[in-house]
């Protein structure tokens, strides 16, 4: 579907598409969809040629899948492949797109703001820069559950005053769910303090402390690559992570993508924005259902669908077509 037709079709719907970020990957993802829809492997071939290695093999074998520089282009490609299947099947064009962290790039490809080939190169580089910004073992991330956002921020600020580095709120995922990132020792300190305040703390199995000030050196280098990449405003609005807003020009879009490396993901505000705009249905366009489950908590979201298997894809396709009045 052309960008103009996509934009026109999207304007009249109450549906949004959400694209997941790193952590959603799993070995063998999209294998079932690939058996039924040739566009899946075509999409992986397109992205693989751009980065110079076989992304489909990594996705299916799992070899190197959890290395950040591989994870990011594989997940991006998986989400774009699912998006293309959705459109090929006549799925509703959503009114808004949003992606969690890495998923923002998937959303921009879906919105025709950037080509898949360019996005694959960018996120491959992004992963490399993030991995090299902090020596292995010196950074960490953890999910803090059951505390108010302000409590988590206060714990991070107190821990950061010890002179041993910094720890910050990295992802505001939902009310009562904040991910922190920073120096490994300080992340452990905040986890302990959160438990003392009757919260829960879960260490995340990641090698890179994303969305915190430790990523500023990576962001400085990444900004240069963004400047050299052809980017347009998307044909379907993309809600950006750093401000839960829609970029009004390409300069602002590039700046937000750069800042996304070291600033918090404002996912709670992103979902509130969708609610405020009258969105009632969401589909998670990537492996798993983490974002769909978060969306189900919201009072105005009537249905939230994962679409990573054929049966899930067909269920979402039919339900949203009926809900949007496209079929009886």
From TrEMBL:
Q: Does the keyword Transferase apply?
A: yes
Which GO terms label this protein's molecular function in UniProt? [acyl-carrier-protein] S-malonyltransferase activity
**A GO biological-process term:** fatty acid biosynthetic process
Q: Which residues of this protein are catalytic? A: 101, 211
Q: Which reaction does it catalyse?
A: holo-[ACP] + malonyl-CoA = malonyl-[ACP] + CoA
UniProtKB keywords: Acyltransferase, Transferase
Q: What GO cellular component entries does it have?
A: cytosol
Domain Malonyl-CoA:ACP transacylase (MAT), first and last residues per copy: 18-313
**Coiled-coil region(s):** none
Query: To which protein family does this belong?
Result: Belongs to the fabD family.
Q: What is this protein called?
A: Malonyl CoA-acyl carrier protein transacylase
Q: Which organism is it from?
A: Acinetobacter sichuanensis
